[in-house]
Amino acid sequence: MTTVINGAILSKEIRANLHEEVLECTNKYGRAPHLVVILVGENPASISYVTGKEKACREVGFQSTIIRLKENITEDELLKQIDELNNDDLVDGILVQLPLPRHIDEKKVIEAISVSKDVDGFHPINVAKLHLGEKCLLPCTPKGIMTMLKSINVDLQGKNCCVIGRSNIVGKPIASLLVSSNATVTICHSKTVDLKNVTNKADILIVAIGKPKMITKDFVKPGAIVIDVGVNRVDGHLCGDVDYDDCFDVCSAITPVPKGVGPMTITSLM
Ligand code: NDP
Predict the structure, then answer these.
(1) What does the pLDDT look like over 242-253, one tens digit per residue?
(2) Which of 55, 110, 207, 259 is buried most deeply by CB count within 10 Å?
(3) C-alpha 26 chain-centroid distance
(4) SS3 for 19?
(5) pLDDT of 177-227, one tens digit each?
(6) Mutation test of ligand 1: which of 229, 239, 268 has the most ligand atoms closer than 8 Å to its C-beta?
(7) How far is CA 148 from CA 221, 236, 269, in A?
(8) Distance 215 CA to ligand 1 centre (A)
(9) Rounded CA separation 91/183 (Å)
(10) Residue 221 in contact with residue 248, Cβ under 8 Å?
């Protein structure tokens, strides 16, 4: 029987526990942890992500502030804003919602965030520490995927894992975390030759491509665990990069879209 790894249910459990921890923390330190999210412009997807983060903060008892900045803000003004937050002892986490308008250098902005407040885990020092296997702030989506795998008690040691996608926010960091857990990891991308031949050897298949329902059952080894990171909108409906219905009977466990990796990303941020 196939196990559905439901990120919405898992998130609810984790957020309830987190709420208890936040209460303890608030009693101990006299204030709740404070997350500041900077939103530049009015990109609808960004607004929706920021709203989700604000809701999650409320749920776990964090203080949250959204700083809304105009689309035409200069890079210097944004950097100044970040500097102020870095130096504010009442701010614990800073997140700049990406993407930024074209005239602003994202790399510069990410590097301006204090390493200890970089809750997205995108600062080069956090990235380096992740790859060195040192304690650091982890990027949220890979962290959520690891929690999902843990929730079904999978022993990663020696498992063949295949990650499709090599982005800095999903593919590369999840591959690194899996290697640190003693899995044998192959990363595939658009130039991979004979993708099916690689994915068919995977005990765990992680898919982060951005192509609706590209992964059908012929890519999946029978009994594999399939984690679908993709979020695509087709004819007004959300779907993943994995053809869920086609793959369901072949795998031993699978994440749905929606209610899969998405909610776990925000929960990991918390
Ligand atoms: P990117 O566009 O940065 O990376 C996509 C990767 O897929 C690239 O490495 C690309 O290869 C590879 N790829 C593209 N086409 C193919 C193909 N035909 N065969 C094999 N590999 C291919 O995407 P992200 O990593 O940012 O996101 C991936 C998906 O995950 C998107 O749908 C995104 O919306 C979703 N996402 C979901 C999150 C969540 O919380 N649920 C969080 C972040 C992302 P190459 O490098 O060669 O171009």
Answers:
(1) 999 999 999 999
(2) 207
(3) 26
(4) helix
(5) 999 999 999 999 999 999 999 999 999 999 999 999 999 999 999 999 999
(6) 229
(7) 20, 27, 14
(8) 13
(9) 37
(10) no
